[in-house]
Amino acid sequence: MLDLTWLLIAVPLASAAFLLLAGKRANPWGHWVGVAASGTAFLVGLGALIQMLGLDAHDRSHAVHLFTWIPGGELNLDAGLLVDPLSMTFVMLVTFVGTLIHVYSVAYMEHDPDRRRFFAYLNLFVAAMLLLVLADSYLLLFVGWEGVGLASYLLIGFWNHKPEYATAANKAFVVNRVGDMGLIVVMGLMFASFGALDFDTVFSSVDGASTAQLTAIGLALLVAACGKSAQFPLQSWLGDAMAGPTPVSALIHAATMVTAGVYLIVRSAPVFEGAPAAQTTVAAIGAFTLLLGAVIGMAKDDIKKALAASTMSQIGYMMLAAGLGPIGYAFAIFHLVTHGFFKAGMFLGAGSVMHGMNDQVDMRRFGALRTAMVTTWVTFGLGWLAILGVPPFSGFWSKDKIIEAAFVGEGAQPWILGGAALIGAGLTAFYMSRLFFMTFHGKARWTDDQHPHESPALMTVPMIILAVGSAFLGLFLAVGDRFSTWLEPVTGHAEHHEPVLPVAVIMIATLVLVALGAWVAWRKYGANDVPETAPAASLATIAARNDMFQDSVNRGVFERPGTHLTRTLVYADAAVVDAAVDKTAGSWARTGETVRKTQNGQVRSYALTMLVGLVIVIFLVVQGGL
Amino acid sequence: MDPINFVILASILFAIGAAAVLLRRNAIIAFMGVELMLNAANLALVAFSRIHGEIDGQIMAFFVLVVAAAEVVVGLAIIIAVFRARQTISLDEPAELKG
Fold first, then answer.
1. Which of A210-214, A410-414, A485-489, A493-497 has the highest mean pLDDT?
2. Quick one: A530 and A558 in the same domain?
3. In chain A, what residues touch B18 (CB-CB under 8 Å)?
4. pLDDT at A625
5. pLDDT confidence of A626, banded at 50, 70, 90?
6. Is residue A35 assigned to a domain?
7. Are A453 and A580 in a shared domain?
8. Which of A201, A331, A575, B93 has the smallest C-beta neighbourhood within 10 Å, fewest atoms?
9. Nearest C-alpha of chain A: how many angstroms from B18?
10. What is the pLDDT of residues A350-404, one digit of tens each?
11. Contact at 8 Å (CB) between A45 and A8?
12. Which of A502, A536, A570 is at the close of a domain?
């Protein structure tokens, strides 16, 4: 089964091609082909997982050779798949959550005339994401990396007849380009330093490289990760990416694609081991983004944008953990998996709410939905408890470990990183509770034509399954350090370090902050009335509502100077380069005009010219004695 | 008789031929001018052959005769073709090559 893992990529890819080429005839049943392709990938992945579990820990890394890709010269590269516990974790997350979201989308997109195209893009995404995580070289990973970027672009702009949605898709694509450039730089540096791009060779030659080389590679990897995972300073696209249909937000912009940056960092662990400065930068970026996302999430009234800010913040946690080194890698991936479940579940819940509320996204017009949509309320509630980190739900097991690991170290670092993680937990509790209470509790603030109703079973069943995962997956994987042991062949064995504070103190402080955040949110948004329009607020709130003015900053720092620069260059091009070329060409044209008069078409004048020429030649011959 | 006189005669004939080509519009006359120039050249070649006492010039003259015969055939054919197409044998009429 492990040798058949290429099917994981081939089946969804073939299905995507089929759905795109099949035409209107496939409209009535095309979506089921998409679901089947994703489901097949899940079954193949499950088979491979079962086989892998039967092997010894050190035999679990399995290389699948596909074909010779780039033969020749100094670069010999084979396309191959690396199936190990890390990639298998992603395969299971992507195919399982992906299949559930495919099923959900069948109902969610039922009235969309382009449903077949939607499923083709979803399948394309699944194929590209699996290629990304299974690739055994940075170049093949890059193919998947670009593939998910393309699928993300196509799906954000799925309703591109609305100009602002098309703009959001473009924005995501352009910002991701910056990150992609980082990955290209990585490959250039690796080829220059090691002469190879496959994981095996690169990681085995890391020991011989200098710290400066590794730091450069590490920072370029971080740029790539920031672009894909919406980390500061490349975070601005994620909020606008919510323009896509909600299942897309759940699958791509919450559970899987945006976590590819974390995967990249963890996969490149040997590089970061040799570059402590780059590693610390990763942790710092993660800590900063987790606070930034949390602050933005506290002020958003759009349910999807609040969830997007939360995603950003949670990926900040993963980045922070990935930047802590071997003690954090397993927890980063652990949180990634639990987050994939509870955040996808909550996005599907948000989609269910929108489905019942005529696509309303303003939380100030929700309220009291717990009676109208019981299943959605319960499943969303489980996700809410999970993200808060309330024991024994999933988030507690993963997030608490990250906070604990952040407190490990010497000097000021553990206090800064740990403090950020701790405060972030409190802020998370506040904004998620605010979202939950504003949507499901309090008084109904619906508009007149809204008649909320529970969604059909095709939507609620995936939500229920994800909610069960949100509730128990963390506990299941945390018992006896199952997950850390499973990942150990890849992430290496982490020695146990004592945090600067006792573990019990950290845990109690976290829970107290979480309870405090939730209580404040209940006082303000659950027990009291919520105004139907956003009230006037302090400067800080306004800043958070506007994503900390990220777009204005980007506009001022990059767009305006860039526009001026290009305009100047265009002017210089016209005034200097073009002018010189035009003048030269003009003088030749005038010469031609003059010379052309001798070509008058008169045979006799040509004959005269010949005669004169002949006479001159004879004269010269006779005179000069040539 | 001094053979140089033949060279002088050849020069005069060549000048007359060239003048005919340059000055007359009628294609037939101009063509006759061309023939005259060719024969002038032949005369000069034969004269040089005589002066130098070598046979090369005479051989060359035969070559010229052969080429001239071919040239007459082609030239007259062109003139007839132009006449059929344009009903004229004026040399100034066809001026399509004007730049």
1. A210-214
2. no
3. 611
4. 67
5. low
6. no
7. no
8. A575
9. 8
10. 998 888 888 888 888 887 888 888 888 999 999 999 998 888 888 888 888 889 8
11. yes
12. A536
Q: Is residue A152 in a domain?
A: no
Instruction: Count the Cβ atoms, other than its own, within 10 Å of residue A105.
Output: 29
Contact A599 B21 (CB under 8 A): no
For B44-93, the pLDDT digits (tens) are 999 999 999 999 999 999 999 999 999 999 999 999 998 998 888 888 87
Query: Hey, which residues 578-617 in chain A have their CB within 8 Å of chain B?
Result: 596-604, 607-608, 611
Question: What are the pLDDT digits (tens) for A172-215?
Answer: 999 999 999 999 999 999 988 888 888 888 888 888 888 888 99
Residue A260 CA to residue A148 CA, distance in Å, equals 10
Distance CA(A372)–CA(A272), nearest Å, equals: 50
pTM value > 0.90? no
Q: Is the domain of A447 the same as that of A405?
A: yes
Domain co-membership, A570 together with A463: no
Range of the domain at A610: 554-624
**Does the beta-carbon distance from A601 to B98 stay under 8 Å?**
yes
Of B21, B23, B99, the CB nearest to A599: B99
Contacts of B91 in chain A (CB under 8 A): 602-604
The residue behind tokens 């010229």 is: B64
> DSSP secondary structure string, A418-429?
HHHHHHHHHHHH
Give the residues across from A83 on adjacent strands. Answer: A62
Structural domains in chain B plus CATH codes: 4-86 (1.10.287.3510)
Tell me: do A422 and A563 sit in the same domain.
Answer: no
Is A135 strand, coil or helix?
strand
Structural contact between residues A165 and A242, judged by C-beta atoms closer than 8 angstroms: no
Looking at the structure, tell me whether residues A346 and A452 fall in a common domain.
yes
Which value, in Å, is the radius of gyration of the alpha carbons in chain A? Answer: 30
Residue of B nearest to A595 (CA): B99
For A608, which residue in chain B has the nearest alpha carbon? B22
* Nearest residue of chain B to residue A614 (CA atoms): B18
Q: ipTM score here?
A: 0.84
Residue A571 and residue A599 share a domain: yes
Closest to A607 (Cβ–Cβ): which among B22, B94, B97? B22
Cβ distance B99 to A598 less than 8 Å, yes or no, reads yes
Q: Both tokens of residue A405?
A: 């690991």
